[in-house]
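Quick check before the chapter quiz. The format below is the same one you will see on the exam, so make sure you can read both the input and the output lines.
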Amino acid sequence: MPIDPATLKTQLSGLTSRAALKAKAEEWGTGDLRDIPDHLLPNIESDEARKALRRLAAQAQSIGPRIVSVKRFGVLGEVNWGGDNQAADQALRAMDLEAVADEMLEQALYSGMLAGINRRDPDLGVTRIEPLIGHVEPVYSPASPTLVAGLIHAWVQPESVGAATKWTVRLYDLMDRSMREWRDVTDPSRVHQLTPAEVVEPSAEYPSGAPMPRFAIVSRGADRMPMGEIAKVLPHLYADWSSQVRGDRIEESTAVPQLVVKGEVEDGTDERSPTHVIRVVEDGDARYIIPGDLRSLHEHHNRKLERIREDANLPGGFLGGQTPSGEALREANAKFISANRWLASRLSRVLTELVADHCEAEGLGDPPQVTVTINREFTKAQDIADAIQLYQADLLDHAAAVRHVSAFVPTWSDEEIEEFIRSRRELVPPPPEPPDAAEERDPLAAG
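Here is the expected output.
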Protein backbone atom coordinates (compact mmCIF):
# COMPACT_ATOMS: atom_id res chain seq x y z
CA MET A 1 0.00 0.00 0.00
CA PRO A 2 1.48 3.43 -0.95
CA ILE A 3 1.87 6.27 1.51
CA ASP A 4 -1.51 7.46 2.73
CA PRO A 5 -1.94 11.29 2.45
CA ALA A 6 -3.92 11.52 5.69
CA THR A 7 -1.33 9.51 7.60
CA LEU A 8 1.46 11.63 6.13
CA LYS A 9 -0.27 14.86 7.13
CA THR A 10 -0.75 13.66 10.71
CA GLN A 11 2.84 12.54 11.05
CA LEU A 12 4.31 15.68 9.51
CA SER A 13 2.60 17.79 12.17
CA GLY A 14 5.15 16.54 14.73
CA LEU A 15 8.20 16.38 12.46
CA THR A 16 9.63 19.76 13.49
CA SER A 17 9.56 18.99 17.22
CA ARG A 18 11.08 15.53 16.70
CA ALA A 19 13.80 17.00 14.49
CA ALA A 20 14.53 19.62 17.16
CA LEU A 21 14.86 16.88 19.80
CA LYS A 22 17.28 14.95 17.61
CA ALA A 23 19.33 18.12 16.99
CA LYS A 24 19.44 18.84 20.74
CA ALA A 25 20.55 15.26 21.44
CA GLU A 26 23.33 15.63 18.87
CA GLU A 27 24.38 18.95 20.40
CA TRP A 28 24.74 17.40 23.86
CA GLY A 29 26.12 14.13 22.47
CA THR A 30 28.97 15.93 20.73
CA GLY A 31 29.45 18.41 23.59
CA ASP A 32 29.16 21.31 21.14
CA LEU A 33 26.82 23.47 23.21
CA ARG A 34 26.06 26.52 21.08
CA ASP A 35 24.91 28.66 24.01
CA ILE A 36 25.00 28.43 27.80
CA PRO A 37 21.62 26.92 28.80
CA ASP A 38 20.50 29.73 31.11
CA HIS A 39 17.31 27.86 32.03
CA LEU A 40 19.43 25.27 33.85
CA LEU A 41 21.20 27.85 36.03
CA PRO A 42 19.91 28.78 39.51
CA ASN A 43 17.92 31.99 39.70
CA ILE A 44 20.27 34.57 41.22
CA GLU A 45 19.41 38.28 41.42
CA SER A 46 22.88 39.70 42.06
CA ASP A 47 24.63 40.80 38.85
CA GLU A 48 28.05 40.04 40.30
CA ALA A 49 27.02 36.55 41.39
CA ARG A 50 25.37 36.01 38.03
CA LYS A 51 28.60 36.82 36.20
CA ALA A 52 30.54 34.40 38.41
CA LEU A 53 27.92 31.73 37.74
CA ARG A 54 28.17 32.16 33.96
CA ARG A 55 31.96 31.94 34.23
CA LEU A 56 31.60 28.56 35.94
CA ALA A 57 28.91 27.51 33.43
CA ALA A 58 31.36 28.09 30.59
CA GLN A 59 33.68 25.53 32.21
CA ALA A 60 31.00 22.83 32.63
CA GLN A 61 30.81 20.10 29.99
CA SER A 62 28.21 17.64 28.83
CA ILE A 63 29.04 14.01 29.56
CA GLY A 64 27.27 13.06 26.31
CA PRO A 65 30.56 12.67 24.38
CA ARG A 66 31.76 10.13 26.95
CA ILE A 67 28.59 8.09 26.49
CA VAL A 68 28.79 8.24 22.69
CA SER A 69 32.48 7.33 22.75
CA VAL A 70 32.07 4.20 24.86
CA LYS A 71 29.05 3.11 22.80
CA ARG A 72 30.96 3.43 19.54
CA PHE A 73 34.02 1.77 21.04
CA GLY A 74 31.95 -1.10 22.42
CA VAL A 75 29.81 -1.84 19.36
CA LEU A 76 32.35 -1.34 16.56
CA GLY A 77 35.01 -3.92 17.25
CA GLU A 78 35.50 -5.07 13.65
CA VAL A 79 33.63 -4.68 10.36
CA ASN A 80 34.26 -7.67 8.09
CA TRP A 81 32.73 -9.16 4.97
CA GLY A 82 33.13 -12.60 3.47
CA GLY A 83 33.02 -14.21 0.05
CA ASP A 84 35.61 -14.34 -2.73
CA ASN A 85 34.34 -11.43 -4.84
CA GLN A 86 37.55 -9.47 -5.39
CA ALA A 87 35.78 -6.63 -7.23
CA ALA A 88 33.44 -6.09 -4.29
CA ASP A 89 36.35 -6.31 -1.82
CA GLN A 90 38.26 -3.62 -3.66
CA ALA A 91 35.22 -1.33 -3.90
CA LEU A 92 34.35 -1.67 -0.19
CA ARG A 93 37.92 -1.04 0.94
CA ALA A 94 38.09 2.10 -1.19
CA MET A 95 34.77 3.25 0.24
CA ASP A 96 35.94 2.84 3.86
CA LEU A 97 32.95 0.86 5.05
CA GLU A 98 34.20 1.11 8.66
CA ALA A 99 33.81 4.91 8.60
CA VAL A 100 30.30 4.56 7.15
CA ALA A 101 29.36 2.15 9.95
CA ASP A 102 30.80 4.50 12.57
CA GLU A 103 28.80 7.49 11.36
CA MET A 104 25.59 5.48 10.99
CA LEU A 105 25.94 4.21 14.55
CA GLU A 106 26.54 7.67 16.00
CA GLN A 107 23.52 9.10 14.18
CA ALA A 108 21.43 6.21 15.55
CA LEU A 109 22.39 7.17 19.11
CA TYR A 110 20.75 10.56 18.50
CA SER A 111 17.85 9.57 16.22
CA GLY A 112 17.08 5.94 17.07
CA MET A 113 17.54 4.84 13.43
CA LEU A 114 20.37 3.20 11.54
CA ALA A 115 19.94 4.54 8.01
CA GLY A 116 22.01 4.74 4.83
CA ILE A 117 21.63 4.80 1.08
CA ASN A 118 23.59 3.78 -2.01
CA ARG A 119 23.54 7.12 -3.87
CA ARG A 120 25.10 8.03 -7.21
CA ASP A 121 27.85 10.61 -6.84
CA PRO A 122 27.39 13.12 -9.70
CA ASP A 123 31.08 14.11 -9.64
CA LEU A 124 32.59 10.61 -9.64
CA GLY A 125 29.88 8.96 -11.71
CA VAL A 126 29.67 5.94 -9.39
CA THR A 127 27.39 5.00 -6.54
CA ARG A 128 28.55 5.31 -2.95
CA ILE A 129 27.19 4.02 0.33
CA GLU A 130 26.42 7.00 2.55
CA PRO A 131 24.79 7.44 5.96
CA LEU A 132 21.67 9.58 6.08
CA ILE A 133 22.66 12.71 8.00
CA GLY A 134 19.93 14.89 9.49
CA HIS A 135 16.50 13.84 10.70
CA VAL A 136 15.16 10.47 9.52
CA GLU A 137 11.87 8.88 10.50
CA PRO A 138 9.50 6.24 9.08
CA VAL A 139 6.02 6.76 7.66
CA TYR A 140 3.77 3.94 8.85
CA SER A 141 1.11 2.34 6.72
CA PRO A 142 -2.53 2.95 7.76
CA ALA A 143 -3.08 -0.79 7.37
CA SER A 144 -0.63 -1.68 10.16
CA PRO A 145 1.09 0.33 12.93
CA THR A 146 4.27 -1.71 12.39
CA LEU A 147 4.49 -1.64 8.57
CA VAL A 148 6.80 1.10 7.27
CA ALA A 149 5.48 2.43 3.95
CA GLY A 150 7.96 5.27 3.51
CA LEU A 151 10.80 7.25 4.96
CA ILE A 152 11.21 10.99 5.58
CA HIS A 153 14.69 12.52 5.42
CA ALA A 154 14.98 16.21 6.36
CA TRP A 155 18.01 18.39 6.97
CA VAL A 156 18.84 22.08 7.33
CA GLN A 157 20.57 23.55 4.29
CA PRO A 158 24.09 24.66 5.34
CA GLU A 159 23.87 27.96 3.46
CA SER A 160 20.80 28.97 5.49
CA VAL A 161 22.60 28.85 8.86
CA GLY A 162 22.49 32.31 10.43
CA ALA A 163 19.67 33.46 8.17
CA ALA A 164 16.11 32.21 7.84
CA THR A 165 16.38 28.46 8.30
CA LYS A 166 15.59 26.49 5.17
CA TRP A 167 15.20 22.75 4.87
CA THR A 168 15.53 20.08 2.24
CA VAL A 169 12.97 17.31 2.69
CA ARG A 170 12.89 13.97 0.89
CA LEU A 171 10.04 11.49 1.02
CA TYR A 172 10.88 7.93 -0.04
CA ASP A 173 7.92 5.74 -0.98
CA LEU A 174 9.17 2.21 -0.26
CA MET A 175 6.21 0.56 -1.98
CA ASP A 176 6.47 2.07 -5.48
CA ARG A 177 10.20 2.90 -5.04
CA SER A 178 9.91 6.60 -5.84
CA MET A 179 11.33 9.69 -4.16
CA ARG A 180 9.99 13.23 -3.87
CA GLU A 181 12.17 16.16 -2.81
CA TRP A 182 11.34 19.66 -1.58
CA ARG A 183 14.01 22.37 -1.33
CA ASP A 184 14.15 25.76 0.43
CA VAL A 185 11.38 24.69 2.80
CA THR A 186 10.76 26.99 5.76
CA ASP A 187 8.27 24.66 7.50
CA PRO A 188 8.91 20.91 7.00
CA SER A 189 5.54 20.06 8.50
CA ARG A 190 3.77 21.57 5.47
CA VAL A 191 5.65 19.95 2.58
CA HIS A 192 2.62 17.80 1.72
CA GLN A 193 0.95 21.03 0.55
CA LEU A 194 3.85 22.00 -1.75
CA THR A 195 4.81 20.87 -5.24
CA PRO A 196 8.00 18.75 -5.13
CA ALA A 197 11.09 20.34 -6.63
CA GLU A 198 12.22 16.95 -7.88
CA VAL A 199 10.62 13.57 -8.40
CA VAL A 200 12.78 10.49 -8.98
CA GLU A 201 10.92 7.48 -10.33
CA PRO A 202 12.04 4.12 -11.74
CA SER A 203 14.51 4.72 -14.56
CA ALA A 204 17.01 2.94 -16.76
CA GLU A 205 19.80 4.03 -14.43
CA TYR A 206 18.14 2.19 -11.54
CA PRO A 207 16.24 -0.68 -13.17
CA SER A 208 14.48 -1.68 -9.96
CA GLY A 209 13.45 1.89 -9.15
CA ALA A 210 14.84 4.97 -7.45
CA PRO A 211 17.62 4.25 -4.90
CA MET A 212 15.95 3.46 -1.60
CA PRO A 213 17.41 3.88 1.88
CA ARG A 214 18.12 0.88 4.06
CA PHE A 215 17.30 1.29 7.71
CA ALA A 216 16.58 -0.32 11.06
CA ILE A 217 14.80 1.22 14.05
CA VAL A 218 16.93 0.51 17.12
CA SER A 219 15.25 2.68 19.77
CA ARG A 220 11.66 3.97 20.03
CA GLY A 221 9.71 6.53 22.01
CA ALA A 222 6.19 6.31 23.41
CA ASP A 223 4.55 7.03 20.03
CA ARG A 224 6.51 4.25 18.26
CA MET A 225 8.58 6.87 16.48
CA PRO A 226 12.38 6.47 16.62
CA MET A 227 14.08 8.10 19.59
CA GLY A 228 17.81 7.78 20.21
CA GLU A 229 19.40 6.69 23.47
CA ILE A 230 21.03 10.10 23.95
CA ALA A 231 17.65 11.78 23.43
CA LYS A 232 16.12 9.51 26.08
CA VAL A 233 18.70 10.43 28.72
CA LEU A 234 18.76 14.13 27.73
CA PRO A 235 16.98 15.26 30.95
CA HIS A 236 19.66 13.44 32.96
CA LEU A 237 22.40 15.18 30.95
CA TYR A 238 20.76 18.51 31.82
CA ALA A 239 20.68 17.57 35.50
CA ASP A 240 24.34 16.50 35.48
CA TRP A 241 25.45 19.73 33.78
CA SER A 242 23.48 21.78 36.27
CA SER A 243 25.02 19.83 39.16
CA GLN A 244 28.49 20.58 37.83
CA VAL A 245 27.78 24.33 37.84
CA ARG A 246 26.09 24.36 41.24
CA GLY A 247 28.78 22.17 42.79
CA ASP A 248 31.60 24.35 41.43
CA ARG A 249 29.85 27.44 42.75
CA ILE A 250 29.48 26.00 46.24
CA GLU A 251 33.05 24.70 46.33
CA GLU A 252 34.46 27.98 45.09
CA SER A 253 32.48 29.89 47.71
CA THR A 254 32.93 27.66 50.75
CA ALA A 255 35.65 25.08 50.12
CA VAL A 256 38.44 27.25 51.62
CA PRO A 257 38.62 28.75 55.11
CA GLN A 258 37.09 32.23 55.21
CA LEU A 259 38.40 34.96 57.50
CA VAL A 260 35.86 36.70 59.73
CA VAL A 261 36.93 39.86 61.58
CA LYS A 262 34.87 41.23 64.45
CA GLY A 263 35.34 44.84 65.43
CA GLU A 264 37.52 47.55 63.91
CA VAL A 265 40.86 46.68 62.34
CA GLU A 266 43.78 48.95 63.17
CA ASP A 267 45.25 51.00 60.39
CA GLY A 268 47.93 49.28 58.33
CA THR A 269 46.70 45.76 59.00
CA ASP A 270 44.15 45.43 56.23
CA GLU A 271 46.54 43.48 54.02
CA ARG A 272 46.00 39.70 54.14
CA SER A 273 49.11 37.54 53.85
CA PRO A 274 51.08 35.08 56.03
CA THR A 275 53.58 37.81 56.99
CA HIS A 276 51.05 40.35 58.28
CA VAL A 277 49.39 40.34 61.66
CA ILE A 278 45.75 41.36 61.95
CA ARG A 279 45.24 43.80 64.82
CA VAL A 280 41.81 44.66 66.08
CA VAL A 281 40.65 47.10 68.75
CA GLU A 282 39.45 46.11 72.20
CA ASP A 283 36.66 43.48 72.20
CA GLY A 284 37.49 42.61 68.58
CA ASP A 285 38.22 39.18 67.17
CA ALA A 286 39.54 37.49 64.01
CA ARG A 287 39.05 33.83 63.16
CA TYR A 288 38.59 31.43 60.27
CA ILE A 289 35.37 29.63 59.38
CA ILE A 290 36.24 26.05 58.53
CA PRO A 291 34.49 24.75 55.36
CA GLY A 292 31.60 22.38 55.79
CA ASP A 293 31.55 18.75 54.65
CA LEU A 294 30.70 18.62 50.93
CA ARG A 295 30.54 14.83 50.72
CA SER A 296 26.74 14.80 50.61
CA LEU A 297 26.84 17.14 47.60
CA HIS A 298 29.25 14.84 45.78
CA GLU A 299 27.23 11.75 46.67
CA HIS A 300 24.11 13.39 45.26
CA HIS A 301 25.94 14.08 42.00
CA ASN A 302 27.28 10.51 41.91
CA ARG A 303 23.72 9.18 42.18
CA LYS A 304 22.81 11.17 39.09
CA LEU A 305 25.76 9.71 37.21
CA GLU A 306 24.78 6.20 38.29
CA ARG A 307 21.24 6.77 37.00
CA ILE A 308 22.65 7.84 33.62
CA ARG A 309 24.91 4.79 33.53
CA GLU A 310 22.01 2.43 34.19
CA ASP A 311 19.58 4.07 31.75
CA ALA A 312 22.20 4.23 28.97
CA ASN A 313 23.34 0.60 29.52
CA LEU A 314 26.95 1.55 30.18
CA PRO A 315 29.59 -0.65 31.88
CA GLY A 316 29.91 -0.44 35.64
CA GLY A 317 31.86 2.51 37.00
CA PHE A 318 32.26 4.09 33.58
CA LEU A 319 31.12 7.58 34.56
CA GLY A 320 33.14 7.74 37.76
CA GLY A 321 31.73 8.01 41.22
CA GLN A 322 31.26 4.81 43.18
CA THR A 323 31.95 1.70 41.12
CA PRO A 324 29.38 -1.07 41.68
CA SER A 325 30.86 -4.24 43.05
CA GLY A 326 30.12 -7.93 42.91
CA GLU A 327 26.90 -9.01 41.25
CA ALA A 328 25.86 -5.43 40.39
CA LEU A 329 29.06 -4.92 38.39
CA ARG A 330 28.62 -8.20 36.52
CA GLU A 331 25.00 -7.35 35.69
CA ALA A 332 25.94 -3.87 34.43
CA ASN A 333 28.67 -5.26 32.18
CA ALA A 334 26.37 -8.03 30.93
CA LYS A 335 23.69 -5.47 29.97
CA PHE A 336 26.30 -3.38 28.17
CA ILE A 337 27.64 -6.34 26.20
CA SER A 338 24.12 -7.59 25.37
CA ALA A 339 23.06 -4.14 24.12
CA ASN A 340 26.23 -3.89 22.03
CA ARG A 341 25.64 -7.26 20.39
CA TRP A 342 22.07 -6.34 19.51
CA LEU A 343 23.17 -3.04 17.93
CA ALA A 344 25.98 -4.82 16.06
CA SER A 345 23.55 -7.37 14.62
CA ARG A 346 21.19 -4.64 13.38
CA LEU A 347 24.10 -2.70 11.90
CA SER A 348 25.31 -5.87 10.17
CA ARG A 349 21.92 -6.32 8.51
CA VAL A 350 21.69 -2.73 7.24
CA LEU A 351 25.26 -2.75 5.92
CA THR A 352 24.67 -6.08 4.15
CA GLU A 353 21.62 -4.62 2.41
CA LEU A 354 23.53 -1.47 1.39
CA VAL A 355 26.42 -3.53 0.03
CA ALA A 356 23.94 -5.62 -1.99
CA ASP A 357 22.48 -2.41 -3.47
CA HIS A 358 25.97 -1.17 -4.33
CA CYS A 359 27.01 -4.41 -6.00
CA GLU A 360 23.78 -4.46 -8.04
CA ALA A 361 24.14 -0.82 -9.15
CA GLU A 362 27.81 -1.24 -10.11
CA GLY A 363 27.52 -4.76 -11.55
CA LEU A 364 30.06 -6.20 -9.11
CA GLY A 365 28.53 -9.66 -8.90
CA ASP A 366 27.35 -11.53 -5.81
CA PRO A 367 27.41 -9.25 -2.75
CA PRO A 368 29.25 -10.38 0.40
CA GLN A 369 27.62 -10.50 3.79
CA VAL A 370 28.83 -7.85 6.24
CA THR A 371 29.40 -8.77 9.88
CA VAL A 372 29.96 -6.29 12.69
CA THR A 373 31.46 -7.80 15.84
CA ILE A 374 31.63 -5.99 19.16
CA ASN A 375 34.87 -4.98 20.83
CA ARG A 376 36.15 -8.11 22.58
CA GLU A 377 38.10 -6.17 25.20
CA PHE A 378 34.94 -6.00 27.31
CA THR A 379 34.47 -9.79 27.18
CA LYS A 380 38.14 -10.76 27.23
CA ALA A 381 38.47 -11.63 30.94
CA GLN A 382 35.23 -13.63 31.06
CA ASP A 383 35.95 -15.51 27.82
CA ILE A 384 39.41 -16.57 29.05
CA ALA A 385 38.03 -17.58 32.45
CA ASP A 386 35.29 -19.68 30.80
CA ALA A 387 37.81 -21.46 28.57
CA ILE A 388 40.06 -22.28 31.54
CA GLN A 389 37.15 -23.54 33.61
CA LEU A 390 35.86 -25.77 30.80
CA TYR A 391 39.34 -27.18 30.22
CA GLN A 392 39.88 -27.90 33.93
CA ALA A 393 36.51 -29.64 34.08
CA ASP A 394 37.62 -31.82 31.13
CA LEU A 395 34.78 -30.41 29.01
CA LEU A 396 37.08 -28.76 26.46
CA ASP A 397 40.06 -30.15 24.59
CA HIS A 398 43.41 -28.54 25.37
CA ALA A 399 44.02 -27.55 21.73
CA ALA A 400 40.56 -25.97 21.47
CA ALA A 401 41.13 -24.01 24.68
CA VAL A 402 44.50 -22.71 23.47
CA ARG A 403 43.09 -21.64 20.12
CA HIS A 404 40.21 -19.85 21.87
CA VAL A 405 42.54 -17.94 24.20
CA SER A 406 45.03 -17.16 21.40
CA ALA A 407 42.53 -14.74 19.86
CA PHE A 408 43.32 -12.37 22.76
CA VAL A 409 47.12 -12.57 22.26
CA PRO A 410 47.92 -10.55 19.10
CA THR A 411 51.65 -11.43 19.18
CA TRP A 412 50.97 -15.19 19.01
CA SER A 413 51.23 -16.45 15.42
CA ASP A 414 49.40 -19.50 14.08
CA GLU A 415 52.67 -21.45 13.82
CA GLU A 416 53.58 -20.68 17.44
CA ILE A 417 50.13 -21.75 18.61
CA GLU A 418 50.35 -25.13 16.88
CA GLU A 419 53.92 -25.66 18.14
CA PHE A 420 52.80 -24.93 21.70
CA ILE A 421 49.93 -27.39 21.39
CA ARG A 422 52.27 -30.11 20.08
CA SER A 423 54.75 -29.50 22.92
CA ARG A 424 52.02 -29.79 25.50
CA ARG A 425 50.80 -33.06 24.00
CA GLU A 426 54.25 -34.55 24.69
CA LEU A 427 54.19 -33.39 28.33
CA VAL A 428 50.58 -34.11 29.22
CA PRO A 429 49.32 -37.64 28.46
CA PRO A 430 45.90 -37.87 26.82
CA PRO A 431 42.96 -38.80 29.06
CA PRO A 432 42.15 -42.53 29.30
CA GLU A 433 39.74 -43.97 26.81
CA PRO A 434 36.23 -44.52 28.22
CA PRO A 435 35.34 -48.17 28.92
CA ASP A 436 33.26 -50.08 26.47
CA ALA A 437 29.62 -49.19 26.97
CA ALA A 438 28.47 -52.82 26.90
CA GLU A 439 31.03 -53.90 29.50
CA GLU A 440 30.03 -50.99 31.73
CA ARG A 441 26.40 -52.07 31.62
CA ASP A 442 27.09 -55.80 32.30
CA PRO A 443 30.49 -56.56 33.87
CA LEU A 444 29.63 -60.32 34.07
CA ALA A 445 28.79 -60.60 30.37
CA ALA A 446 32.33 -61.70 29.50
CA GLY A 447 32.08 -64.58 31.93
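If your answer matched, good. Confidence is low (pLDDT under 50) at residues 203-207.
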